[in-house]
Write a structure and sequence with these properties.
Blueprint: E1 4-10, E2 13-22, H1 26-41, E3 45-55, H2 57-65
Parallel strand pairs: 2-3
Antiparallel strand pairs: 1-2
């Protein structure tokens, strides 16, 4: 299952909802680009990983880097 991202603002914080798999490749590139663009708007950001079924080492490295 590919990574699906959606976001919602709540009380001045942007919540990014992630579902699927966070694996090295297109998924991590998409996550990195989404977070980069959102951080340009608001420095308060939360990643909700409740819908993530799998994270590989590349995905974990991306999360740490973010």
């Amino acid at each position: 299952m590919a990574l699906k991202l959606s976001n919602k603002a709540s009380n001045g914080v942007i919540i990014v909802y992630c579902s699927g798999r966070i694996v090295f490749g297109d998924e991590t590139a998409s996550l990195r680009e989404t977070v980069k663009n959102l951080l340009a708007e608001n420095r308060q950001l939360v990643l909700n990983l409740g819908g993530v079924s799998y994270i590989d080492s590349g995905g974990l490295g991306t999360l740490v880097g973010l």
